[in-house]
Amino acid sequence: MGRGDKRTEKGKRFKGSHGNTRQKSPNRKTRHAAKKAPTKK
């Protein structure tokens, strides 16, 4: 279980791949974000 193990976060960093262990953007928590209704002035 080290750099060669593609199931761990360290192995994914070494290979440069993404998945459940290492998501592409960590600031996106949900898949479908609720859109705000545009406010009328």
Textual characterization of the structure:
Helices cover 17% and strands 0% of the residues. The protein starts with 8 loop residues before the first helix and ends in a 26-residue tail after the last helix. The chain is mainly α. The model has no long low-confidence stretch (mean pLDDT 78). The longest helix is centred in the N-terminal third of the chain and has 7 residues, at 9-15. It is built from 1 helix and no strands. The protein has one helix at 9-15. It is rod-shaped and about 55 Å long.
What is the general shape? rod-shaped
SS class? mainly alpha
Number of strands: 0
Mean pLDDT: 78
Order of helices and strands: H
Low-confidence stretches: none
Question: Compute the gyration radius: what is it?
Answer: 17 Å
Major pleated sheet: none
Percentage of residues assigned to helices: 10-25%
Q: Roughly how many Å apart are the termini?
A: 58 Å
β-sheet strand percentage: under 5%
The total count of helices amounts to: 1
